[in-house]
Amino acid sequence: MKKILMAVGMAALVAAGFGAGLQYSARRAGPAGREARRILYWQDPMHPAYKADKPGVAPDCGMKLVPVYEGEKEAGAPAGMAEGTVRIDQGRQQLIGVRYGEVEMTSGGGTVRAVGKVAVDETRVTKIHPRVEGWIEKVRADFTGARVEKGQALLTIYSPEMLASEEELLLAVKARGILKGSTMAGTAADSETLVAAARKRLELWELSGAQIEEIERTGRTVRAVEMGAPVSGYVLARNAFPGQKVTPETELYTVADLSRVWVMADVFEADAAEIRMGQSAVVRLPYEGGRTQAARVSYIQPEVNAATRTLQVRLELANPGMRLKPEMYVDVDFATGTGERLTVPAEAVLDSGERKTVFVDRGNGYLEPRQVETGQALGERVEIVKGLKRGERIVTSGTFLVDSESQLKAAAGAMAGMPGMGAAGKAAPPEKGKKMPAMPGMGPEHD
Asked: What's the pLDDT tens digit per position in 95-111?
């Protein structure tokens, strides 16, 4: 019995020693079995920007502060985070409306939009001059904007030179009739040559074949000869008036065929690389309920306008019903086909003017600001040229509020690193025996 009691006593002593060893080890290890390390500061787990030099609760949310040990970042923070990374718990994310999307490779067609102006097709403009010197007697096309058809009389002109050439034709025709039965070799052929030469001269002065035949048939000259329109179109300019003396240098009319027109579109230089010769486009008439018409790029100007930083692109298109009139403004959409590109939703990019930021989800509520370079807009998405990788999870909604949190944290971090500031961003107490330095605007140093 005595031996049994001694054995039980020994077991109790061993158990007590083992328990004491466990308690000592736990005190050495600290929370979660960590080895004892120096605590740098205490931190609000919901708002990491708030730091304190002793335990307690956060003044804004009432949460218990957690310790941050030497050699350790914020609890749960992934490595390699950029400055300004902010931690927002799930509840607050829902409150401010944070939603997520992914960086994806997308393909499809985009649209480059521009403003254009209708212009006259310069290849369909005709300047009308007289071939002889004379005086205008009657004007048929007597106002700008008049529609004229090819061959239609524009005016009548009296020309002494023309009248003399008509008389020469009549004399040649008369001589041909007299010498027709001549027995002299070559006489009849020579008379025929004279008639042909007289006719040719009148033709070069733009007398029509019908007018010449009328002169030959009647045997009478025409004092005032009608001048016809060489083309069909609209009179854009008129400089012909009754009684006016004209010479071959006088520009009487400018006539344009408006059945086809040009549209001169101003494309911003950032979009110039998307435009190419022969590319299809759609011209929209905003003043006709958005009616559209197909067009095609026929020319790209070789220089950018220095004032507007735009490139002029010329399109050609038909003009049925004369809906498109010179100097009208229209909207132009250029269809651009694209291959696969790295894109994000357009609302994910926060553009401050100086830089463009996207917030990347690093897990455990941490959102990292990433500076990016953007390319072409592709519908509701935008191309990312630099700064992101495919498959990364990003913030697509609530970006502005997340950015505000990020900037506040960056500002707090900057204050913490200022001379004379503690870890919590507050002024550090002076060392024992030293006085506080004088502040700007204050008197001599004071305790």
From this structure: 889 999 999 998 766 78
